[in-house]
Amino acid sequence: MINLFHFVLILTLIVVVISVAKIKDLLSAVILFAVYNLIMSLLWQQMRAPDVAITEAALGAGVTTVLLVAAISKTGRLEK
Amino acid sequence: MIDIVVHPNIYYFASIVLFLIGFYILLTHPNLIKKVIGLNVMDSAIFFFFVAVGFVSDGGSPIVEAGSEALTVNPVPSGLMLTGIVVSVSVTAFALAIIIKVYQHYGTINVEEIYVVRSEREC
Amino acid sequence: MKFRDTIVSIITRFMLPFITLFGLYLIVHVHLSPGGGFSGGTVVGAGFVLLSLTYGISMQERKFSHRTSTLIESGGALIYIILGISAFIYGQPFLSNLPIFPAGTPGRLFSGGFIALLNIAIGVKVASTIVALFDSLGGEDLH
Question: How far is CA B74 from CA A40, A47, B44, B56, C134, in A?
């Protein structure tokens, strides 16, 4: 038996990561990647691992996004 | 709470699917920043696998009072994965610094165009 | 590029004390609840990065300059090592608890010896590392 909320979150994760793979605009891909990390953090909080959830929400959804946006502003936005 | 009948090992299947999609992004996109995103997706899939190993259904959070007998999840795999998240962010920062240097040197971050520029410079 | 959005700046001004307070809560309550020096330090550093993104690098330079950040980063690691080595005075191994820090009652804030002090050192170091990482990866072009 599995919680329905976990199942919905896992399906959302897979849909979001497929859209990250398909999208051409790098800035949109980075924002979708932040959404992916946030949903992953929510799932870990539901799976009773609160310390990993806090660290992932601060590092994965915050710092990684800022670093990727900084790198994109230095290079180019469109993927050729 | 509503329960539905799914295979109980769906966490493992989901982490394998996420890992494979991340590997697909890493292999098939020529853009270096997209490759870094794929690497991060693979990292998250591995962390998800380890957290799912320690997960006990109907278990509580691993914050115990003295003398408590409540059922909790196993905190050891999630404790291991804390270090993994830190390593993942450090690798990302290092890779992005190298990517910015590559862009300043070659003028592009597309791998195939970098090969073209290198072959032109050697001639 | 001088683009300043009204909604973002007002929300930043409203949210920044709460972000910093939550980071400090995570650092200080390390031995009682989930969190710790690394997570709390990252939250505090992300607050400074948000300030620098919204109001420009000059505002952040006035509050928390690059030289100060480098000094604090080295100081955090130094405090950790000094606290660890000071157990040698009593003939104990590295990072043993000193007798001058009492164990206390489990569940209270002042308990657990010097774990909270060690994590304050880690949190200070990590917060300034996040700010220095953002600065040196070209954050000055972003605001």
Answer: 19, 11, 19, 7, 35
